[in-house]
Amino acid sequence: MGFFLETLLGGLMVGMLYALVALGFVLIFKASGVFNFAQGAMVLFAALAMARFAEWIPALTGITNPIVANIIAFIGAALVMFAVAWLVEKLVLRHLVNQEGATLLMATLGIAYFLEGVGQTLFGNSVYKIDVGMPKDPMIAFESTFQGGILINKEDLIAAGIAAVLVGLLSLFFQKTSTGRALRAVADDHQAAQSIGIPLARIWVIVWCVAGLVALVAGMIWGSKLGVQFSLATVALRALPVVILGGLTSVPGAIIGGLIIGVGEKLSEVYIGPMVGGGIEIWFAYVLALGFLLIRPQGLFGEKIIDRV
User: Fold this and answer.
1) Alpha-carbon dihedral of residues 102, 106, 108, 110, nearest 10 degrees?
2) Rounded to the nearest 5 degrees, what angle is found at the Cα of 170, between the Cα atoms of 169 and 172?
3) What is the pLDDT of residues 185-208, one digit of tens each?
4) What is the CA radius of gyration of the chain?
5) Which end of the chain is more exposed for a tag (fewer CB within 10 A), N or C?
């Protein structure tokens, strides 16, 4: 029982990180109705900015306190992502209002390649580290309840807590604020939203800023765990089954989908992996997502689209 709970907790913590990355997809889709293939590049670009700023700030300012340096680096990286959001709206999205979804999709692909290229030019292509002070050593919990206790990774626990807080704040933002309601209106119909006075340009800047902040937090956490390297952009691919499972338009769906995928990967790898030779953790999420596409294409919490003819 102890080992099962240990695996379950590990899956829940990883699932919260998947949910955090999936939120970036949901945010952009809710505001523009297009799947944002640039989300992985945004995670990479934000992580690169923070890692390099954390290196440059002590050398340029003489600040030796790592906590202060990381806070300044985080703020600097957030400002960079806000600038990216403004440029995306001004140079790309503003000229694609009311265009077909395929056109917007191709635009996000172009943004992805552009961010990867600019990131390599500005910040280099080496492997960098982000050290935000999260403990790396595991701990043993519930020793008195289960024989041998339950092994918990402190870094994963803290990262899952940060992701949970951010997810909760974003859920409140969408449900309780006028800007959140405006985002939903823009996603439903660009022309109708404009006709009732919703400033489309401002809404898109806001949502890309929020998505950039989410990408920064996700990049900081994954960069701390894996190091900041260009393969970090593929982390977003692990979130694709999450948004398919939870629904492209649902923030709660991203959370539930992330938890289901995280737990499913861990349990399947531990209990089914030995029967099939291992490696099930790599493809389990995609097979599960494929099954949902066949049975419920809009996901668990996605809105069912009805076309009337």
Assistant:
1) -170
2) 65
3) 776 666 676 777 777 778 778 888
4) 20
5) C
Count of CB atoms within 10 A of residue 189's CB? 12
Q: According to the model, what pLDDT value does residue 97 have?
A: 66
- Rounded Cα distance between 124 and 262, Å, is 32
Residue with the larger pLDDT of the pair 306 and 160: 160
Distances (CA, A) of 129 to 121, 133, 140: 18, 12, 27
CB 246 within 8 A of CB 299: yes
**Sign for the pseudo-dihedral over CA of 300, 215, 229, 114:** positive
Q: For helices 154-176 and 200-226, give the axis angle rounded to 10 degrees.
A: 170
Of the ranges 18-27, 113-122, 130-139, 265-274, which is most confident?
113-122
pLDDT higher than 70, residue 122: yes
Interatomic CA distance for residues 190 and 188, integer angstroms:
7
Helix (H, G, I), strand (E, B) or coil at 298: coil
> If we measure between CA atoms, which residue out of 111, 40, 49 comes closest to residue 80?
49
Does the pLDDT at position 309 exceed 80?
Answer: no
Q: Which residues contact 105 (CB under 8 A, 6 or more apart)?
A: 34, 35, 37
Positive or negative: CA dihedral 248, 250, 254, 257: negative
